[in-house]
# Entry
Amino acid sequence: MSNAILEVSGVIKRFGGFTALDGVDFVVQAGERVGLIGPNGSGKSTLVNCIAGTLRNEEGSIRFEGRDIHTYPAHRRIHLGLARSFQIPKPFGSMSVLDNLCVPLLYAAKGKGSRSVADEAHHILRQVGLDEKAHAMSGGLTQVDMRKLELARAMAAKPRLLISDEAMAGLSTSEVDDILELLMGLKAQGVAVIMIEHVMRAVMKFSERIAVLVAGRKIADGDPKTIVGNVEVVKAYLGE
Amino acid sequence: MSNGVFAIVAFAFAVAFAAVSQLIPNEYFFTAAYTVLQFVILATAWNILGGYTGYVNFGSAAFFAIGAYSTVVLYNAFKAPLPVMIVAGTLVAGLAGLGLGYLTLRLRGVFFAIASLALSVVLFTFIVNWDFVGGARGAYVLQPREVPFGLPRYIHLLYIVMVLQAAVSLIVARTIEKSTIGRGLAAIRDDELAAECSGVPTLRLKIFSTMVSCALMGMAGTTFPYYLSFIEPSSAFSLTYAVNSIAMPLIGGMMSWVGPLIGALLLGSVQQLVQVMFSLGAWNLLIVGVLLVSFVTLAPNGIMGWVEAWRRRRGSR
# Structure
């Protein structure tokens, strides 16, 4: 039996007459680091939304640790251990940075781990380098810090699979390295990560495997070096 | 302060306050205080859904009226005792809130507000055409001749009931606010999608807060028919309730249980003063409007928000 944590098969998602996902198959092994790339509008975020439960796919199945979850609401999926960060940061603006983490710690990670909620929140904030701003209001953070908070909040849910949706867009080289290091560290904790990213340097460094989505179909899936040399992929990105 | 301690303190304070104020010789105090306390309950209740969760309910009057008309039904049918009426009205309004929540809270934001307003209109029409509760004519609900606990008049009893109900509302609101549920509601208010993706069961929590909010509004209405001795649809469904229960938390501050209390005491008292001292009762809604506009422009987070900002400024200096 395979050690797959996530098995997406034949997923179709339509918006009216537009087919955003057209029979996508996608597998992630436990603890694996997978890069998901594709041009803008290729359906990456739609796939993430279907996996995380913020959208419902019309056809196909999504299995998480062997369980078919495609009818589950998002909050139940995160209880099972499937967390995501948002492309555009969505902090709880009326709360402090610390309180932002308390929400998933109290709801999604209930009963997981032995530390108190506040200790755990500080522990995660230290990991992402936001501990000094623990009591700052989250609405007033800089873009970089909001991205970090977004990841921290996903980590606070104690996931076994974390989907990072463009956490690095618009960040400087050193900031990208910070976040990369953070995501790499999750591997040590046995967390599988799907990274959606346009920053190719980050994707290549991070991924053990890369899947490529173009116009709602997966056109390639394999180890990073072969993907870069794949004719179809090059054509999708650069044209003929 | 823990929830238990707060509940004991609030209740003790309410009992003491109700007891001491019995010494006030002026009969009108009780009539006026009844109305102000009614608004304390309504504003506190509205804020559980509107302030904590971020869903605007325009139908406060409907839930208030459900409480009031539950009393009329029980009065006409069985002459039921007052405590039974209070419990029944609260439950019926809570159930109506559950229904409204279940039907509409899958929609976001403004749709809920419109649905709550629509419910108000539907219920109004229903009551107007329901003969058993007096229809458009209205119904008499006579105060009992015998006043219990040796109180001089029935209004004294109603006033005490209102003080206790206000205490219950504040305890419920504060308990919710400080609990895990309160944190979940705040997350929903800030960003519903992010809340759902942080594991908050958003639909369930929204329905819960609607139910509690509406139940408390219903509770506020249960003694109303006795207060007036006569009730008709247009007084029970009055625009004043809907407007005040939104305006008071807005003016006081919507982030904590203190805001609606302050807003209701302030605005409620001002309205009573205007009505009695200057006989300008008709101006009340105008006053609410002017205050509302001033607060929205000058102190958008209400009095409590203003105090909070002032405290933070002083702290950072």
About this structure: The domain at 4-81+159-238 of chain A is CATH 3.40.50.300 (Rossmann fold). The first strand of chain A starts at residue 4 and ends at 15.
